[in-house]
Amino acid sequence: MAEPEFEQAHKELVSTLENSTLFEKIPEYRKALEVVSIPERVIQFRVVWENDKGECQVNKGYRVQFNSALGPYKGGLRLHPSVNLSILKFLGFEQIFKNALTGLNMGGGKGGSDFDPKGKSDNEIRRFCVSFMRELSKHIGADTDVPAGDIGVGGREVGYLFGAYRAFRNRWEGVLTGKGASWGGSLIRPEATGYGLVYYVDHMINYATGGKESFAGKRVAISGSGNVAQFAALKLIELGATVVSLSDSKGALIATDDKGFTPEIVNEIAALKLQHKALTALENHNFRYVEGARPWKEVGKVDVALPSATQNEVSGEEAQALIDAGCRFIAEGSNMGSTQDAIDIFEAHRVSQKGNAIWYGPGKAANAGGVAVSGLEMAQNSQRLSWTSEEVDAKLKGIMKNIFENSLETAKTYVSPKEGEFPSLVAGANIAGFVKVAAAMKDQGDWWP
């Protein structure tokens, strides 16, 4: 059976490793690549639930437990009609190396269902979550597998899932992250992916400009309008940037004045999202809504692009459009936000234009802030402690700094950029994450030369 999303993610990692000196220096790691590419376990099950009319409904449920060499499986649950095994394998595969980059003890996994929460009542969502957890609870635990939220799974769904787990297993434990702050959740968790993305790009800007520039005065295009996009936008505005776009599944909302999005508008968007309403409601003299479009060709001159919606949301053509618009930095708030064509264009431009090039930060590094704070939530649960917002934010900043520096130094070691050329952050992130997991697997006897 074809698995295009997983095959794309796998090919991207393999091509990076092949085009580096890693296999020349450590040839036995080819065997590690072969082993790590197959999940340790794939769980599939049916989810039978009752709608408000009393009718029986059935959906497919999944959990891909991909790799546990570094710690319990860790990765989100996605509820969306598009969910299938290929998408979950791609997400779980990416999660292995993203989690490795955080430096925390977490393996990689992903799960979810083709259930669509849009248009469902709270009671229908609760009944689905209880049925879904009835089976999933047999396979997860604080030291085994710790799921989190993802697309379609927010605080409400995590609450229903946690309550069902507690009832089925008769135990309170940190089995899910993204919990409510009053019952085991971590402060800064909702903001973490968006904040972490901004912190990561801030390091890119600082390195590329020798500390002469920051986000102040930069025009930033963002796609998406969920948690990642919202909190990235709010942090960017705080740092003096102008946010010129957000988007939803039906189109892009583009700012038509120099003011861009304000915190008030972002909060209005958050309220709309909770009501499952489209961004068209905000179209007025300050904003235009472009039906069926993504922001990249619509925003005009832009300094930074942050794809933060879903996979493959920047095509090769759109990558070139961003370069033509003067974009100097692009980093993914979504997983595999750029197609392989787009990545090839960004990387070719990086090599040919050296210090004047666009610089690309891959999702497994740039959007790792979310899972990093999930890991911090796990640590707080284990200690029965709660840290302050300032403590969590400081730890998040430190983790994102380490991810950037690790990717940078690894790229210099295994890809050797030419004079004046930015190191390849995609190569650095892929190699650094892979090497850490491969070494742990070897130590534990999962593969041998």
UniProtKB/TrEMBL annotation:
Family recorded in the similarity comment? Belongs to the Glu/Leu/Phe/Val dehydrogenases family.
Q: How does it assemble?
A: Homohexamer.
The alphabetized UniProt keywords are: NAD, NADP, Nucleotide-binding, Oxidoreductase
> Could you confirm whether the keyword Repeat appears in this record?
no
Catalysed reaction equations from the record? L-glutamate + NADP(+) + H2O = 2-oxoglutarate + NH4(+) + NADPH + H(+)
Q: Name one GO biological process term.
A: glutamate biosynthetic process
Q: What is the lineage of its organism?
A: Eukaryota, Fungi, Dikarya, Ascomycota, Pezizomycotina
Q: Where is the Glutamate/phenylalanine/leucine/valine/L-tryptophan dehydrogenase C-terminal domain?
A: 186-445
Q: Where does substrate bind?
A: K74, Q95, K98, G149, S374
SMART domains xref list = ELFV_dehydrog
Q: Matching SUPFAM superfamilies, A to Z?
A: Aminoacid dehydrogenase-like, N-terminal domain (SSF53223), NAD(P)-binding Rossmann-fold domains (SSF51735)
Q: Which GO terms describe its cellular component?
A: cytosol
Q: Name one GO molecular function term.
A: glutamate dehydrogenase (NADP+) activity
- Which organism does this record belong to? Aaosphaeria arxii CBS 175.79
Q: Which residues are listed under the site Important for catalysis? A: D150
Q: Where is the active site?
A: K110 (proton donor)
The cross-references to InterPro entries, in alphabetical order and at most eight, read: Aminoacid_DH-like_N_sf, Glu/Leu/Phe/Val/Trp_DH, Glu/Leu/Phe/Val/Trp_DH_C, Glu/Leu/Phe/Val/Trp_DH_dimer, Glu/Leu/Phe/Val_DH_AS, Glu_DH, Glu_Leu_Phe_Val_DH, NAD(P)-bd_dom_sf
**Protein's recorded name:** Glutamate dehydrogenase
